[in-house]
Each structure stands twice: as C-alpha cells, then as structure tokens.
Amino acid sequence: MPPPIYLLRHGQTEWNAQGRIQGALDSPLTELGRRQAQSMGLTLKRALNGVAPPLFCSPLGRARQTMEIVCAAAGLDPDGCVFDERLRELSWGEWDGLTRDEIEAAAPGALAARRATHWTHRPPGGGSYAELAERVQPFLQQLAQSGGIVVAHGATQRVLRGLHLAMDPNDIVRLEEPQDAVFALYDGRIDLLRL
Question: What positions carry a catalytic annotation?
C-alpha cells in the first residue's frame, strides 16, 4: 500500500477572523492560528512515527508560516519543502479581500449565483473549483505512490480530498475546511487526525 498523503490547511489568519476572502491575497496567522499549526505539527509527529515524507506547501505566506510551525512541532526540516504553485488557493478575483457582506452590497445576488453553480462559478477575475481541480489533479497523481505532507488552503484541500475519493463535485464544495486537523489520504480512504 502506498504511503499516506497528509493534508493540512493553514491556521486561522487575521482575515479569516474578520470574515474576509483571502484567495490570492494574504494575511498573517493569528495567535489561534499559530496554536492550530503547532497542534497539527504534534498530530503529524505522532502519525509519522519518525518517518519524514516529502513536504509540499503553497507559496502563499499563510501556508508558509503554518508549514514552518508544523515542521518545528513535528521535528521536520522545513528547508526540504517544495513550494508548488499548483497548491495556491482558489482566487475570488475582484472579491479577494472583501467580506461576503461587501460582495453582496457591491453585486446583489452574486453570492446566491455562486452557490447555485458552485463548482463552475468564476467570480469576476477569479477562478472556479473546476479549474482548481484541473490544476491539482496532476499533483495528486504525482503523490499517489510516494505520499507526502501538503500544507495548503481550504478550497485546495477540499478538492484534493474530493478527487481522492472520486466524489461528486457538488459534494466536494460542501466539505468542511478545518484549520486544526490533519487529513490522512490512503487506499481510497481519508482519516481525520487531531490531538
């Protein structure tokens, strides 16, 4: 059986706490986010049991910051991390940096339209879940035999998990996006790991 792929979402950021869409933009981890990253690192340390699989991370700052804290807690070397552009978060384009209330005020009905066609919807200047799936599918196939640790984002993690389980796209977009858990993907299954 191939080794697992461990998926982690970055810890809570200042914009997460404010309800702002981050997408391609960035904000630093909050104190809670740093504690979440440390907890995920300790969870990973227990799961790895001394093994150090390949490490991959989104190039965005919040994922990098999480990865460094995770590595410190798990006893992993962050210098070996590969920053992969395919792991970037789904951008909401012109809506990045806005709250849902601000989006609705600027474009009434836009969020309802997004929910109605969630998988294929593209915000102005942004991308769709379908496009994200095309971007991360080759990455997932690449890790299928080697396993590895992946630090990424909510939508990215949703899609990777959904593709692993061959889920219906309408179910993928409804998957939870915890910031304090490690998902272990292996043999057509997913285990949720927490301290």
Answer: 10, 89
